[in-house]
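Extended Data, panel c. Modelled sequence:
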Amino acid sequence: MKYLNRVKSVRNLGGCRLRAVFADGFIGEVDLKPLVDHAKGPLPNRLRDPDFFEKVYVDDGAVAWPNGYDICPDVLRYYCEIGRVCSTQELAAAFASPVPEPESPTLAFNEKPKP
């Protein structure tokens, strides 16, 4: 599932590794070290401090840290599914594909849906 993900719980596994449990039951692990190592700006730079990184928590369905930095749950889910942090170009391509329509059963002419 690419969209509308929500993180239910998160656990630091040491270093920059996280285990996230999503609202739909999916459990994923990912090493965020590449993201942390290439971060620019004061918010993500704080994640380089292991003591600060350990303060990860769930805020309104996203993983977050006390300084206000967070990671979109859809992006985190994608990272977990592919098992790594990817480039912004790869991420953009992954999310550029159209959202699939939910499948609905086809009813025969004059057939009423079953309750």
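The mean pLDDT is 88. This feature is highlighted in the accompanying rendering.
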